[in-house]
Amino acid sequence: MIIWKSSLRQLLIYCLLTGFSGCGKSPTEAPIDVEQPSILLTCNPVTAGANEVISVSVLIKSNTKEIRVFGLDMAFDSRMFQFQEVRKGTLTGGWAAVDGNAVGPGSLRVGGFSGGGAAIPLKSEGSLAEIRFKVTGGDYGNGQQSQICVKQYTDDLVGFQPASVCSTFTLKK
Amino acid sequence: MDTRDAWNSAGCEKGLPMSVKVREKDGVIVFDLAGEIRLSDNVSPALQRQVVEQLAEGKSDILLNFAKVDFIDSYGIGDIVASYLAVKEQKGRLKLSCLSPKIWLIFQYSGLTRVLEIFDSEDKAIQSFG
Asked: Could you report the predicted ipTM of this complex, rounded to two decimals?
């Protein structure tokens, strides 16, 4: 019994002097996993031949405020693609309008506003818009890659990351 | 007494009701709008009706010239949106020109500037139809 008490005392003294292992970090040092509002571009299909139509979706997730109106600029190679139309996304089906206007060769301004439709709630995940292009291919050869990018987010997309995002398409001939 | 009667009896004068003149320029139907685009005694959507009439005649490139528009309310915004959607449904194009700074702000706050093509001048707008 005496030996046991002595051992326990020594262990307690040791722990007080050295600190308990695993308790060295204060709570504020623990990593905090907070998702940032982010934007992503997908191309479907990622490979196609001339005269085929591809759909580029503007996807968002983890928005930290409601989205009622948005705008963004889209850049593409006008030798590879011909702009067709903009359709509403999975998150904007009930909105008054989602549309795109060509502002020059290879440049498109895409925007939408909810009007009487419901705002996109916080922490949503889905698409804002689907932009359709016809593949022209120009004089490019088989396997030529081309990027479609979005940037300059406005209104309720301000602060979304990354500031510019692209999707890569490959021409099939 | 409804809201508008109360507004009038309070001494708030109504402005000129909207007037629309329609003409054609370089293949584009131009609506010269003037006065106030707002809820009037005639509650039917005046602008949308006239736009639909043009669409029925196969004319789907339409420009709304706001040079002489003094005021637009939420009803007017709805009329513009309804006109825009009617044109889009027919695969046409509806654009706007010559908005005053005040009208521009209303469009901006409502989010319409993200969707509609708006030009400083009628000539630029006409050219954009190509």
From this structure: 0.74
